[in-house]
Amino acid sequence: MSKRFLAALALAGTAILAPPEVRAEEVLKIGALLIDTGPLAGFYEGHVRALELAETDLNENRAPGAPRIEIRRATYAGTPETALQAASRLAKEDRVQVITGMMPSSTSIILAARAEALNVAVLDGFAQAASLTGEHCRKNYFHIATTDHLVLSAYDQMIAEQGPISWDILAADYTTGRNASESFQKMAAAHGASIGHVAYAPLGTSDFGTSITQLAASPSKGLFISTFGSDAISFAKQQRQFKLDQKYDIILGHSYITRTTLGGQADNVVGNYQTFGWLADFPTEDSRTFADRYADKFNAIPDYVAADQYIAVQAAQAAAQKAGSLQAANIASALPGLTFRSLLGELTIRAEDHQLLRPVVISQVVMTDGKPDLAVQTIVPWEKVAGNPNPECKLGSAS
Prior knowledge:
Layout: H1 3-17, E1 27-35, H2 44-60, E2 68-76, H3 80-92, E3 98-101, H4 105-118, E4 121-124, E5 141-143, H5 148-153, H6 156-162, E6 166-173, H7 175-190, E7 194-202, H8 209-217, E8 222-226, H9 229-238, E9 250-253, H10 259-265, E10 273-276, H11 285-298, H12 304-323, H13 328-334, E11 339-342, E12 345-349, E13 356-357, E14 360-368, E15 371-380, H14 382-385
Parallel strand pairs: 1-2, 1-3, 3-4, 4-5, 6-7, 6-8, 8-9, 9-10
Antiparallel strand pairs: 10-14, 11-12, 12-13, 14-15
Helix pairs in contact: 2-12, 3-4, 9-10, 12-13
């Protein structure tokens, strides 16, 4: 028997005996789609930081049987077409089993429909369109973020307390904005309220002058705002000269105020309310640890989008552990009904529509030490906001 053959045999034996954490097939590869230009670019840094922390922390503190994770990043232009191209590259070239990242609702709809063909499980911690757990739900798509339905349902009691007043609406002329506007109008009507002026602004609007003038001309008692990113900053600044915020008794935001936008919005949004899936002072030990680690490493307070990205990675690792497999199909099969430890405590992904059942935080912008800050007002448990699975989701039959 040749020395070369014996050496090869020895190497093979070493590979067989190698501990699980160093075997290539024992690594869960997660592809992250990121947008670094345009109105959503303000969320890019938070996502990158959350992914970095997740890769470090979840590998160092793995539960028995949980795989190591590797995160591969891919930037794209923010459109469904470029997202699909980037996701295809991650699946084919990097052989990722899971896709996550910055996925606006229109992008998520496309990726949800193509996930099974790409042989990946999509864990979405970004999009909020309620249709993603309704008509657009799919076998390999799982919604980790809050939907419009979840965050708006948290406002239900506040709307009821206002009584039969009139509400104006400013929303992004985009899937999320229109869905949020329609849902809010139904909630308001259910409590005897009426709808006044409704304005839609295209994504990427830099001049809200026309909408602000229309709203200021004859304001209702309440204002509902559903816009985000740089658009939200522009609106907050521009409404100041009309003192629009002072014309309303109450202003409710949807994706309007975040840690990312608050610096630019400054005191123009003091007193406004905003719902979140998470805030840095959320009262769990894991949440505090995450917020402290983030602050120590990056000298910044994490936003909810960073937390949702971290939770999506937690869910992916837990699903692979439950499946006992790194095959995308097996991970996708393990996710429905999965209960796992997260920043928000122990959470479950509902099998019927693949929505993560999670609480919602109602916050208000207050002045703290001379600066605007987000303060938790109420934490609404998931049982009061999730409702029943959307009957338009047919995951129980042919999807």
